[in-house]
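2024-03-11 09:14:02 DEBUG pipeline.ingest accepted 1 chain
2024-03-11 09:14:02 DEBUG pipeline.ingest length=249
2024-03-11 09:14:03 DEBUG pipeline.predict start
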Amino acid sequence: MSENSDRTPMIEAIGLSKFYGDFAASRDISFTVSKGEIVAFLGPNGAGKSTTMKLLTGYLSPSEGVARIAGHDMSTDRLAGSKHLGYLPENGPLYPDMTPSSLLNFFFFSRGMSEQHKRDRIAAVVEICALSTVFHKPIGKLSKGFRQRVGMAQALLHEPDVLIMDEPTAGLDPNQIHEVRQTMQKFGKEKTILLSTHIFQEVEALADRVIVLNEGRLVADGPMADYTANGKTLESEFRRLTAAAALAT
């Protein structure tokens, strides 16, 4: 738990399920992330992580259950909840012919933000995400590391309280991963973060707490120390938990 956390619930999953016919992409998922926490969301491919994140953000409607962001039901009060939410999906959509400058201006006005705050907010996210050297270059010409940072900049533009990020370092080289990780560490000083990743080193460097999904179900939820106590490693515990869950079904 971050020392900044005050236990105010900022992300709430209450019995979330998503069904496609007889197939359950996620089933009865419940957890809460408090203000100031950085929580890692782990699971094998197909475990239901991305589906659950889309339910939390209001991108998908749940078949059952409730998702809340900063107290707002994302099925019935999505616009109010979205004001508190920055979302970076895996391979998030960016417009390759636009520059970071034009993209951030576009998102600024599409969110209905006040013109008088535009210069300060754009300058702030450009500094946080270290985009000054590519600010006027076409996004399609940027490295994947810079494109990820542009995605983070748009997610931060409206000063959200909550960040939900799905595989933010997927496909990056070690230097790019380091840069993106540094950016997330800056976020974690004042934001609530739910982070999906397959990189255990990233989890160990960033997360206060770890949630593990397997086959659409939550199979573990606890502080990082629980996964590494008594000589255990996060990777070995992940394998044990996901293998045990698979055998039980």
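2024-03-11 09:14:41 DEBUG pipeline.report The chain has two domains: 1-84+160-249, 93-159.
2024-03-11 09:14:41 DEBUG pipeline.predict end
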